[in-house]
């Protein structure tokens, strides 16, 4: 079977295989740190930032929990729509106080920067989130999240994975997430019993995402766009579109790999010839099926060119 038939089969399997498992697998590698002339409303992704699917770096993104008003950069995972169904996308955010509590609050509160993202979590908040031994413990304030409520079965699992990926990103370890009541007794989350483990990244994460530039970033000259992807033959096409939707720049990045997990990609983007104004940067997966699998996955960020 040639490569294009293999990837078409893979895309079809991904479309059908959105039942989110409770067992974790090794996933994406480190993101390249976006560089160049960029500023944004929140902190840029930290140097050597890792996904929760990686081993910790020598200088972890998030050291021990902060005290007082100290700030920490945390990854928060939100839901976005793709042709293959809802998937998780990540934002790096600066938070004050304990990073576990703050990161969980971003997820449960649906506090997104990118308007294309959302949270599946109903209203509410955790009483506490902390690391205890070989697990991350999330203490619920009441039993409001014990059942699925209005969530579908897949929605409940994806909401749980929002929490798992976020808290594991804070810990920089693939620790199980244990949901407990005020007395420390394990309780169900959206009908899911037992410790929550990371589901396969290829099943729950978008197959392309942009870590930089961030939503709302201001750029000038040449900047480095980057993120992670699992795209046909490691090809990651990108575009810059003006406010009317016209493509004014395009190119592609070559990721460090493809198919078995998400790999880093990066590309230099020269906006020096563009008029100042608002644009959209878009990165996509390559689509060898010609749309038969529903079309490519993509991520987009609104940027301002100075």
Automatic annotation (TrEMBL):
<feature type="domain" description="Bacterial spore germination immunoglobulin-like">
    <location>
        <begin position="208"/>
        <end position="292"/>
    </location>
</feature>
<feature type="compositionally biased region" description="Low complexity">
    <location>
        <begin position="31"/>
        <end position="50"/>
    </location>
</feature>
<feature type="region of interest" description="Disordered">
    <location>
        <begin position="24"/>
        <end position="77"/>
    </location>
</feature>
<feature type="signal peptide">
    <location>
        <begin position="1"/>
        <end position="24"/>
    </location>
</feature>
<dbReference type="Pfam" id="PF10648">
    <property type="entry name" value="Gmad2"/>
</dbReference>
<feature type="region of interest" description="Disordered">
    <location>
        <begin position="283"/>
        <end position="306"/>
    </location>
</feature>
<protein>
    <recommendedName>
        <fullName>Bacterial spore germination immunoglobulin-like domain-containing protein</fullName>
    </recommendedName>
</protein>
<dbReference type="InterPro" id="IPR018911">
    <property type="entry name" value="Gmad2_Ig-like_dom"/>
</dbReference>
<keyword id="KW-0732">Signal</keyword>
